[in-house]
Structures are given as structure tokens and as C-alpha cells.
Amino acid sequence: MRGQDLEDAFNSMLRTDYIPLSDTAKLNLLADYYVDYMGYVRDIVGPTDQLIVGRRGTGKTTLLYRSLVECMRSWSDEGSAARKRTLGVYLDLEKCQSLSSTMGSDFVDFELAFVAELCDAIRDELQRSWPALTQEHSLVDRVFKNAEIKKALAVNAELQKLVGILTSGLPRFVDRSGVVDRQA
User: pLDDT at residue 114 above 50?
Assistant: First the structure.
């Protein structure tokens, strides 16, 4: 192995957060050199939800990028830890409004921002994986714009129901006798 190859491999793991998701060559390089001693990649791309926490610089982003590559590989005939034909979507929540900034405002804004980011991430991954879809902007954009609008309306309706429940009575742990109407 040449010294430059070793340096490239090390840097690909060290600064994963600087690899653009569109640079599949660097992502594949990361996947070739990343050693998953603990088997975390299989867990992440598995059927159960995973919560990844850790201090800065402990490899969380590298692990997620490596898992994304595993999802990409699930579409080919080579072996993959992910189920066959798994679409991996990388969603950067730093682009969404923070939860702490929604405390004084309407939570609906946060949910809408989250759904919009999710739709954008799915669209980006579809276009990255199938470049021919970029020729069909209207198709992908129509699907996700409609989904975003419908989701926003559904979320608003559900939130209104919740507001009605919360403002019309007391929680069960306050009064266990039955329905409690709000007193004026």
C-alpha cells in the first residue's frame, strides 16, 4: 500500500463530516477502509431503530456514512449488511429548527421544518442514486411537494385535536373519577 493511499484512507475516516454525500468515490473509499470491530453497521442498517450518542469526534458521523454506503451496496449483487434494496437517507437535523427555539413558539413550525428536511433528504438520495431522475424534476418535486403539503395539513389537524383534549379537561393522574370539565 502506498503512503498516499494510507493517508487518504485515514483522512476519509478522520474528516467524514466534510465528505459531500454526492461524492460516492470518497464514500466508497471510506467503506473500503472502515473496520467495524463492534458490528455497529449491521445494527444500524438492521430492522430495529438505533440511537447513536457520543462526544464530539467519536465517529458517529463516520458510522452513519459507512451505514449509508452499506445501503447503497444493497442495490448491487455484492454482499451487504443491509436488507436487499434498502434506500438509505441521511438527514442532517442541524438544518432543522432546534427544539429549544420552539419552546416559546408554535411546535408546528418545527414539525413542518422536519418534514420538509425529510422530503428533501429522500429526494436528494433518489436523485443521487438514480441520476436519470434529475431529468424528471417535475415528477420527484411533485411527489414530495404534495406529500409535504398533505403532511402539514394532517399534522395541523391532529395538533388541533390534541389542543382540544388538553384544554378541555384535566389529565387522568390529577383526577381519576372520570371526565373532568374545565372550570371557569
Answer: yes
Question: What are phi and psi for residue 87, nearest 5 degrees?
Answer: -90, 110
Q: Provide DSSP, the chain.
A: --HHHHHHHHHHHHTGGGS-TT-HHHHHHHHHH---TT-HHHHHTSSS-------TTSSHHHHHHHHHHHHHHTTSSS--SSPTT-------GGGSPPSGGGSSS-HHHHHHHHHHHHHHHHHHHHHHH-GGGGGGHHHHHHHHHHHHHHHHHHHHHHHHHHHHHHHHS--TTT-TTS--PPP-
Q: What Å distances lie between residue 177 and 57, 94, 143, 171, 181, CA to CA?
A: 53, 45, 48, 11, 12
CA distance 156 to 158: 6
Distance CA 183, CA 91 (A): 45
Give per-residue pLDDT as tens, 22-81.
Answer: 787 888 887 787 888 888 999 998 888 888 888 988 888 888 888 888 888 888 887 788
Task: Write out the three cell numbers for 6.
Answer: 494510507
